[in-house]
Task: structure prediction
Amino acid sequence: QVQLQESGPGLVKPSETLSLTCTVSGGSISSYYWSWIRQPAGKGLECIGRIYTSGSANYNPSLKSRVTMLVDTSKNQFSLKLSSVTAADTAVYYCARGVGWEPRFDYWGQGTLVTVSS
Amino acid sequence: QSVLTQPPSASGTPGQRVTISCSGSSSNIGNNNVNWYQQLPGTAPKLLIYSNNQRPSGVPDRFSGSKSGTSASLGISGLQSEDEADYYCAAWDDSLNGVVFGGGTKLTVL
Result:
């Protein structure tokens, strides 16, 4: 059974960089799209971007200038960096596995709350 | 404001059938597959329907999906109390070159 687990600081100061890692277990990281999706409290889902195991990535245009995603196939991990954060970036961040080109996210992490505050 | 438009709420009584709509444009639903997610309170979303009308293993056949033009629908028949959740549609958007979600529909079982 494939499992995804997010890890990283739960509190980030304004203007600093949010860094999260997603560790994939129970299956190979190869040949899938790996995404980061966030959800502010009481609001809907927003796809931050996704990265293929080749390293090719697509980012949400509204966040593109601040986002970097990387994949480490040797560790079965992928990561997210979001720079210059503000309170508007406070949300639950999920990592998810995507099958094929369409947004078919079949496995999700449990989510991790990241709060941006001084 | 979400790229895909869903009604903010829907409701039904046990045993009823409800439908949740998702409206988009030619750059997303009109040219790409639609996927649906169910999010129970305090949990991660769960894939409910993929490729417009396909159910992953383990999803009851009470859940169905359809697509026509630039709109899609999720149908839930034989409504049960455990179906009370938030439902989201999602699709690839060719213009934005990214995944877009609907704003979500909160389903209440009366």
